[in-house]
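The data are quoted verbatim for completeness:
=====
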Amino acid sequence: MGRTRLYRNGKLEAEGFPVADVSEYVSDPDAVVWFDMCSPSEEDLRAITEELGIHELAVQGALQHKQRPKLDTYDSHKFLNVYSAEFEVESGRLDVAEAAAFITHNALVTVRNSELFRIDEVVRRWDEAPGLTAHGIPFLLHGLLDYVVDSHFDSVEAIDEQIEALEETAFGEQPVDRADQRRVFEIRKSLVTLRRIVMPMREVVNTLIRRNDELGDGAMAPYFQDVYDQVLRAAEWTDSLRDLLSNIREAHLTMQSNKMNLIMKQVTSWAAIIAVPTLITGFYGQNIPFPGFGHPWGFWVSTVVIVVVSALLYRSFSKRDWL
């Protein structure tokens, strides 16, 4: 079973009470109830949603995974779907956890698909702002969105640090190895996933800000505006990092191509130098007399020619930066 909390008249009155008491507390206009479920069965979810009069489409949305972040409005409640994110530095992968929420005038029900969505962090944000508990559901909703957006921002920041490290490899003296190439690929996948869950959050938070009735008496509006600013920063940062990572990947390919061209020039240059003594000694190897044959000066002339021509070729290739 999930976790429960009861706020009455702006104060935390009870938590960890039985689920059966939820319907009794919800009927009290002075009470605000939070109920959390992690990987519930369809029967467990429908039992609590029937008590709150949740629409069938919203229930199906909570049961179906991999939906886009969104905020759907029904007559008596709203349905919210969000994702938290956590970037693994060692592997370069992004772990995402989906969570849905049913929002009524005095109840918030969160439905998580795994423990990766750290509900304890949401609760910590609520406990750190006891002066805002009087605002009821907007206060609880802000804590939930604040955790989600902060997880996005932290992931973007961690990815940025990894991309800065990859920039060093693009122009380093050591060639780019397969591990660096694999890391670029993993981080690129993570950025694509992160962008997919960050971009729709602008619409979700902006919808709450535009509808003043969603924020109660309006005292929570500045807090939602702060969350919206974080969403914009995370979205813009994600786009810029994706472009930067593409540039790094292109730089890796360009540096590899340049390195290969340099190696080919060096090999060709040394082959040309080696061809000179090969030509002369090959000429001497013919079964015909040649100038200086049988005389010491013939050997020394051929040796001098080999050294001089090879030195001239080496100097010429060095000037062209081929060696």
